[in-house]
Amino acid sequence: MFDTLTESFKSAIGKIRFHDDEKALKKALIELKKSLLKSDVHHKVVKDLIANVEKDVKAVGVGKDAFLNSISRRLVDILTAEGNQGFVFASKPPTVVLMTGLQGSGKTTTTGKLALMLKEQKKKKVLIAAADLQRLAAVEQLRQITEQIEVDLVADENLTPEQIVKEALKRAEDGLYDVLLIDTAGRLAIDDELMDELFRVKGVANPDEIFYVADAMTGIDAVRTASTFKEKIGITGVVLSKFDADSKGGVALGVAHQVGVPLRFIGSGEKMPDLESFIPDRIVSRLMGAGDLESLMEKTAAVIDEKSAKKITKKIKKGQFNFNDFLDQMEQMKKLGSMKSLISMIPGMSSVAKQIGDLDLENSKEVKQIKAMISSMTKKERENPDLLNNTRKRRIAAGAGLDQMQVNRVLKQFKNAAKMAKKMSGKGGMKQMQDMMKQMQGGGGVPPGLMK
Ligand SMILES: Nc1nc2c(ncn2[C@@H]2O[C@H](COP(=O)(O)OP(=O)(O)O)[C@@H](O)[C@H]2O)c(=O)[nH]1
Ligand SMILES: [Mg+2]
Questions:
Q1: Atom of ligand 1 nearest to the CA of 245
Q2: 413-447: per-residue pLDDT in tens?
Q3: Whose CA is nearest to atom 3 of ligand 1?
Q4: Are strands 237-241 and 275-277 parallel, antiparallel or unpaired?
Q5: Structural domains of the chain ordered from first start
């Protein structure tokens, strides 16, 4: 996601020593400029950033800290536009959000993701209205999504978009919903018909926010169409979808500056949990390699309930973590979404995230094998795999479509992992982990202000 950009900043910062001369600054800035342009950051944004950083640093004397502080501050400026950050609730519920964008940009998916985020992380009651009646399949798609995330839907193929919105507003009021998200129709390109329809829907909905969902892969076009929507119907936020598919990531740095509207969320995958708030100072912290613990906490706290986390920790400490616990943990992990983006939020881990690629827990071959194996075991065996004798192992292997060697290997790995976890969770283990984290943070030379 932001790996390439993070690397660019890290490498430029690495070029300057604690105290240095203007020649070194010049060199670092030239390199930074080149790599930002290569990452698709808009040339005007790059030019401004470089000029401002040069001015800032020269004013206080060239050195690593001055350089880093100036880049951080100037980046936050660039990413900030007038308007709300993250999701902001109206003073009087329901908060009404109109989701707009071109066809295929990711509106419907993002509507579902946003609903799930509000429901899980903010514990809000969310209603979705299906006001895209251009394609029959659109309503069906939204039905499937809302069923999956267990959020209520207002849909009726026989009504007009305005009628649906009226109906949804009434339901939202009567049912004491906190948020109403309205999914609208898109077109392949911006045309009058689309704008007219949106205008009418907007008139009825009187929304608190109008989000424009843009496909990150369309690069410059995403910015251009967002500007047109801003002009014609007045958007209050941009969402960049499919950011996971855009390896360069530079578009995100230009949106606020170029469109004049804050970038509010980014889509980081096809699944429902794959949505992240785009909060400027948190993103800058990530770009500087300092991670984003705040967002990580929000994401995990919503999914992992504290009681079961404590229970698991206790079991791990005693070396009693078994296959039943493993299945439970896998289910919880699934709710967290993309592993790669989670790992990149941990301070110092951005380069690790880059290396692991995207680990897909549900579809990985290994995980599927283990799950098949576990499902062939009895409850007792899951709790205590030592009960398994050779005959049982052979049966389980047959039941899971594996050979006995594979079963033995998994059992051994599991035993080792449990042993390791027990060790790490002891007193010395925790200290080892902390020392490791400290070392990683120290290496980046991150200013304390960024470590929130
Ligand atoms: N990889 C990835 N795919 C996405 C993301 N958001 C949407 N998509 C995919 O983009 C396609 C179009 O999305 P959809 O929500 O139907 O677009 P709409 O026409 O604007 O409603 C679907 O195949 C989605 O799965 C994202 O953040 N990452
Ligand atoms: Mg749609």
A1: 1
A2: 777 777 766 666 665 555 555 555 455 444 433 33
A3: 270
A4: unpaired
A5: 3-79 (1.20.120.140), 95-288 (3.40.50.300), 297-444 (1.10.260.30)
